[in-house]
Amino acid sequence: MIQIDTYINSFSRYIEQGKREPWELILLLKGLLNDKIDSLGEEYLIKDHIAIHKTAHIEQNVVIKSPAIIGKDSFIGANSYLRNGVFLANNVNIGTGCEIKSSIIFDHTAIAHFNFIGDSIIGSHVNFEAGSVTANHYNERKNKDIFVKHEGVLKNTKVHKFGSLIGDHVKIGANAVLSPGTLLAKKSVIKRLELVEQIRES
């Protein structure tokens, strides 16, 4: 099993992994968020299964669909779209025009602007430059199963939607694309315009 704590130091402080793989957590994310929302304190404004910390700042024309948790001192730029279960920890910065879908993003991470983050788990102090994306589906393949490569071993996730597991302090350059099933260790650096394909055929 892939231990998320080896990628993200603070993961277990927020979410219990148990015996679930990262992509299994994404499948369960809506339920996990609904349970977590029920336990939040008065520092959150909660309505229709959307919890927003009172210190968070949300600009105009942002759409947030339930369930979602927006943590302390987080920022969401104008015209961004959050859907299908989103968890932002503390001091997360989501820039203008981003789409975040079914994802968990940890402390002090910045998603610059015009990014897509889909079905992914993103560590702390990660920086996505403008236009970089986590692809979450193989549109071009007949076999849609997403494989990951962990410690030299191929694993079939048996899901058709999974983006990336990204460790703490990773830097991702502008307009880079992370293919479905990308795993990035702590402090990895992805160049601008780079295509990351850890599994070329499946």
UniProtKB/TrEMBL annotation:
Record's keyword terms, sorted: Acyltransferase, Transferase
Pfam families: GMPPB_C
InterPro entries associated with the record: GlmU-like, GMPPB_C, Trimer_LpxA-like_sf
Keyword Hydrolase: no
Lineage top rank: taxon: Bacteria
Domain Mannose-1-phosphate guanyltransferase C-terminal: 67-192
Acyltransferase found in the keyword field: yes
Protein name: DapH/DapD/GlmU-related protein
Origin species: Lutimonas vermicola
Organism placement in taxonomy: Bacteria, Pseudomonadati, Bacteroidota, Flavobacteriia, Flavobacteriales
